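User
New here, help please:
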Amino acid sequence: MKNTDIHVTQAKIYFLPVTMRVPLKFGPETVSSVVCLRTEVTVKDRNGRSATGWGETPLSVSWVWPSTLSVSERARRMEAFSIQLAEKLVASGLVGHPMEIGQDFIHGPLAETLTAANAAAGGPEMPYLGSLVAFSAFDIAVHDAYGNLLGRDIYETYNAEFMNRDLSAFLEPEDGSGISFAGRYPADYLVKEAPKVLPVWHLVGGVDALETSDLTGSEPKDEHPVLLADWIQRDGLKCLKIKLRGTDAAWDYERMLRVGRIGLENGVKWLSADFNCTVKDPAYVNEITDRLLADEPEIYARTLYVEQPFPYDLEANQIDVRSVSARKPLFLDESAHDWEFVRLGRRLGWSGVALKTCKTQTGALLSLCWAKAHGMPLMVQDLTNPMLAIIPHVRLAAHAGTIQGVECNAMQFYPDASVIEEKIHPGLYRRRGGVVDLSTLHGTGFGYRIEDIGRELPAAAV
């Protein structure tokens, strides 16, 4: 036990609806709005000192919960679940470092609350990933509060000085690897002098207009670009992530071709292909990559990695993917709920991991440590994070040591959502020169500078 151990004494939640400037396609669904869950938690240490912290994430139901249920019903259930989590977190009485509280809550009250909520609702069950996304806003807030309590940047606390347990209490190495987590802490796997500027990835959505011929007349008429070349030129982009269907090989190949050609003509250096869990057979991906290699070798060479083609329930869909990763690095995203799924993915032939803070800061750090220890490269991917949500996201990317920067696309799909935060952190909410700039983030916790931002919130939901 340490005097710096904390427990949560209060939790407030706010629901912040955001309307998209242009639609975004997630797998089979196209969405035009989202509700962001913002949390404020109060923590107290063993000496009676207290502090508050903040967390936020979009409740992106189309991404976390593919289902025949309506988007509105899934959103309603995720919001109701979030309210239950606020009550459960305060009642849990868990004590320790935020990593310890987060891990213990995920493997105890969170699982129990999800089981009970699904039983009460009947019908299609909210998946584990949905529960993690809802809890992530609380988990991030606890980390932020802890840093605020100590007057420290939260990334200075992931070590033996503040944690009661080393990584061997959280992680198990692969059998026969010779790796040991005894005496190791997250700080041992993090970039200590994190960069203040990161290359930024632009998301080319499945319904985005690429060229003038794609325009329908319904596009927004504002200060922001619509066509891909205009985005590249205005933001100085060098990295494009391409959303594909995974159910129409001809369309997917043509999309890679069109985006790749526009990108290369405008100075883009790197591409990635994201199939969003819709592919069932590795041959589907292999045929597309092989055709690119044969017919469009420059586009093939510039494709840095392939992201999550296969169903995200990795346990139920244990597909041998080594033929795909032999062609291009293959990164887990939706499947990488926590380090145990990363271990299973590695056994099936996946190359690396795309981390997301929306699966909890605690879980992302543990997956990072396991992956780095086992030689798996990392990326940090966006859940279209606006407002506060982008800050822990880019901080994770800076400390993770990714293969190439970070994805940030909220400025594409709802740039006006973050105009208040942008006044304090302009380099985060306006991509320029192909980068995001973190230099305005400073102070304690995640460095939000909440008081400087001064956003007025609605009444707390609970």
The mean pLDDT is 96. The domain at 186-440 is CATH 3.20.20.120 (TIM Barrel). The chain has two domains: 6-169, 186-440. Residues 98-121 form the longest helix (24 residues).
